[in-house]
Structure to design on (337 residues):
């Protein structure tokens, strides 16, 4: 696995990030440890988790299972210093009443979507301390605001994050699930006050393009891509790059909830080209998508994969060895309705 630079930090991180969301819940401890061991053996370094992972898979829990598992893995292996560790705060729930059921199908105004603790100063300070305790470390390398909180003044959030950096509890900050105009406001405030600015933006991004007219703060749109091209100090970390396996499982391409933001003629055309190049190369469509994302430079990005099984990890990691020709990359880039 190659390494890439994170923003303008000088940090070199693995070109493929490993999402640990399911570790400790859907993915049991032995399997999780095996994935982590293999990831590092493959040259990977970038681990991603959050303090809320994964309450929806553990009835009665507010989350923390993933961070706790990573803490046990660090204690077992002693490899904390061999990874670039990212976690997130602000998206734990205030209460569990009324949040159970179909998480992906939850209405935008449901308790599950709007009951977050938020990004207040005291909340973030407590949250990171709790994360560090579960992780068994004195610092993380990157700390994200997981869900943009418009009810808290940005000045309060940014000053608190600056304090966490100054205290050595995180080396860098990032943001997730956020509009482009908010990113610019954050940048201006950081410049004005001398606070550390975000170096990573974690958003949903794949080979498929969001459909026209979609109102969705978490999926990258054309304006956000343009913003990233103009600000290379901010690296896109692309979560859900293979969209829950829809590329490798054609039966999921119709009616699957994850496809709602993408469905239409453009998605159909792009699926067809991915399938075509998969046949040419002998690789799976999902690997072709990851290989294409790994080659993107304008803007550069880091795909974040979240395997549930060891086999899923091995399949995703194989994408780093796929060499797409210039002609294939051109076809992929130009495909669409």
């Amino acid at each position: 696995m190659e390494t890439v630079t994170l923003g303008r930090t000088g940090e070199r991180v693995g070109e493929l990030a490993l999402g640990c969301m399911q570790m400790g819940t859907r993915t049991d401890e032995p399997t999780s440890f095996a994935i982590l061991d293999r990831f590092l053996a493959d040259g990977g370094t970038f681990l991603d988790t959050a303090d809320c992972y994964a309450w929806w898979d553990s009835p009665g829990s507010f989350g923390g299972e993933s961070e706790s598992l990573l803490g046990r893995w660090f204690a077992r292996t002693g490899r904390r210093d061999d990874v670039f560790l990212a976690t997130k705060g602000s998206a734990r729930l205030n209460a569990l009443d009324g949040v159970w059921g179909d998480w992906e199908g939850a209405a935008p105004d449901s308790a599950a979507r709007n009951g977050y603790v938020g990004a207040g100063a005291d909340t973030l300070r407590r949250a990171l301390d709790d994360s560090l305790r579960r992780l068994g470390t004195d610092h993380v390398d990157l700390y994200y605001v997981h869900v943009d909180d418009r009810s808290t003044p940005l000045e309060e959030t940014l000053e608190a994050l600056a304090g966490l950096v100054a205290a050595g509890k995180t080396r860098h900050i990032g943001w997730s699930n956020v509009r482009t105009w908010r990113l610019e406001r954050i940048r201006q405030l950081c410049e004005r006050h001398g606070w550390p600015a975000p170096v990573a933006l974690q958003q949903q991004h794949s080979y498929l393009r969001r459909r026209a007219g979609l109102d969705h703060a978490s999926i990258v749109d054309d304006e956000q891509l343009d913003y990233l091209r103009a600000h290379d100090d901010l690296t896109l970390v692309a979560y859900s790059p293979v969209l829950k396996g829809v590329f490798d499982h054609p039966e999921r391409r119709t009616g699957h909830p994850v496809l709602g933001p993408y469905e239409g003629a453009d998605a159909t055309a792009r699926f067809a080209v991915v399938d075509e190049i998969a046949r040419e190369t002998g690789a799976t469509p999902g690997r072709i998508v990851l290989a294409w994302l790994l080659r993107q430079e304008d803007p550069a990005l880091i795909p974040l994969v979240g395997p549930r099984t060891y086999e899923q990890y091995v399949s995703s990691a194989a994408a780093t060895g796929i060499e797409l020709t210039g002609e294939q990359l051109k076809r992929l880039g130009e495909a669409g309705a």
The CA atoms of residues 60 and 96 lie 7 Å apart. The first strand starts at residue 3 and ends at 5.
